[in-house]
Amino acid sequence: MYRSHNCGELRIADVDSQVTLSGWVQKSRDKGFMAWVDLRDRYGVTQLIFDDSRTDASIMQAAKSLGREFVIQVKGTVIERESKNANMPTGDIEVLVTELTVLNESQTPPFTIEDETDGGEDIRMKYRYLDIRRNPVKNSLIFRHKVTQEVRNYLSNLDFCEIETPYLIKSTPEGARDFVVPSRMNPGQFYALPQSPQTFKQLLMVAGMDKYFQIVKCFRDEDLRADRQPEFTQIDCEMSFIEQEDILQVFEGLTRHLLKEIHHIEIDSFPRMTYDEAMRTYGNDKPDIRFGMKFGELNAVAQHKEFAIFNNAELVVGIAVPGAALYTRKQIDGLIDWVKRPQVGASGMVYCKYENDGTFKSSVDKFYDQADLAKWAEATGANPGDLILILSGPANQTRSQLSALRMELGNQMGLRKPNEFAPLWVIDFPLLEWDEDTQRYHAMHHPFTSPKKEDMHLLDTDPGKVRANAYDLVLNGNEIGGGSIRIHDKETQALMFKHLGFTPEQAQDQFGFLMNAFQYGAPPHGGLAFGLDRLTAILGGQETIRDFIAFPKNNAGRDVMIDAPASIDASQLEELSLALQVK
Ligand code: ASP
């Protein structure tokens, strides 16, 4: 038997017990006649004591030659500690060792395996298995397990059935490129790895499975963006005989369950906001509503004077920054520089201080009088003591610039509190999105999303105006889930493909299997998928997903531990019919 107890469980009540422990040497201290070793495993740390007067000389000797991260087994007696450590659950006791076996030696690790480590990001990624021995990383993985377990409990209790779908499939469009796998048996042909199980879960609804979920890996070959992983995990769900309202209820319930089980937080029903409203009031379809600074549109009260920049703009829009009227010129210039950075792209910013005495002082006093500025304050909801910041230009672009500034201010002012949770639904997304590059409409969610019946007549005349039965669940400024009510008849699906620029042949070739299935009694259905990595990170009070993934890729999409991707040898290429033809 390797152990009678783990390293986290012995307490004062265990004093005098004979125990066997196994684990890693976290650190050792040698005082000559006495030595201590902190023994670590997943469950905690227990102090071992070796003492000249009570320990065999040979064991004493062996204890002194233990190195960091050696794997050892000890037998001994639990004794009460003389100097207790209230910071450790096992801090009242220590184990007086009578037998010591070295199970495996270790090289000196490349960084310290402590909560605060001296190892940089790269080296810790390379030795991820050592990094996982550290509490912060280990605890994040255990936390993820807990989230996953709660998801399974909640959905299983509602009769959802977890069903696996294949990984070697044909392309499912979710707006990214596919990772492909060459087929050795079918020279020149490829499988695609799923960007999501979208079509399979719909086929499971045709198959009558009624309520499906799966905690599943998805693969998307996207251009690298910070904190994105080419493979990530979804909580993927689908239901039959439901309307949008049913889905919102079930998954609001799931989110509420998680917040309650994990944080003991109870949240009433989640607010809902249409996509249009989110864009108008926050410039963003995933607003962080933990703080205010809602947008105020100023066209009506700023385009009547001689100020050409505003007069020529499609949109003039501002926010009131609470208490920031006392910002210095330097602080305001800092914000102006911030919005002018290429990543944000504003050409300038107008400001207006709403002084505590009720007067206004703006950077455009030349053009606007106090009565004008009072109207700006009204439109942005500013109070005395606030600073109004205003951007202008093309509407979409200006909204997204002001949204970036609002988030930056939220961060700077500490308004984005990690232990505060503000979920909301964003609903009524547009069905289609104009793509400048290809000069075509794309499905904003995916091609299987149903248009709102009352907007169908606009498909031919004003496709950008058609709204979809699509929704996102947003938490603290992050989209954590999204889905839609699906099309479930062949004709509408064919019409949709036509509007997306597919010829009937192309549609049949790529999605014939789905449209055929729709001819055999497809029930009305819909669903959504949560991003498990992001959801876990946010519930864990963090914004980076990497710490919640056991073996993540780095920002360049590489696994630096196993060194992938890597080249394969010529014979393997040939076997896969991928050999380059050398002339
Ligand atoms: N398949 C969708 C996605 O990955 C989710 C859904 O529509 O259910 O975003």
SSE blueprint:
Layout: E1 18-30, E2 34-41, E3 44-51, H1 57-64, E4 71-80, E5 93-104, H2 121-126, H3 128-131, H4 135-157, E6 161-162, E7 180-182, E8 190-192, H5 198-206, E9 211-219, E10 231-240, H6 244-263, E11 272-274, H7 275-282, E12 296-297, H8 299-302, H9 308-311, E13 315-321, H10 329-340, E14 350-354, E15 360-362, H11 370-380, E16 387-393, H12 395-412, E17 423-427, E18 432-435, E19 440-443, H13 458-461, E20 470-475, E21 478-485, H14 490-499, H15 504-517, E22 525-531, H16 532-539, H17 570-575
Parallel strand pairs: 3-5, 6-9, 11-17
Antiparallel strand pairs: 1-2, 1-4, 2-3, 4-5, 7-8, 9-10, 10-22, 12-13, 13-16, 14-15, 14-16, 17-20, 18-19, 20-21, 21-22
Helix pairs in contact: 4-6, 4-16, 14-15
The structure holds aspartic acid.
- Shape estimate: globular
Task: Fill in the CATH topology of the largest domain.
Answer: BirA Bifunctional Protein, domain 2
Report the sheet-strand fraction.
15-25%
Distance between the termini: 64 Å
User: Strands of the largest sheet, in order across it?
Assistant: 6-9-10-22-21-20-17-11
| Largest sheet: number of strands, sense, barrel closure | 8 strands, mixed
**CATH-derived architecture of the largest domain:** 2-Layer Sandwich
Structural class: alpha+beta
The total strand number stands at 22
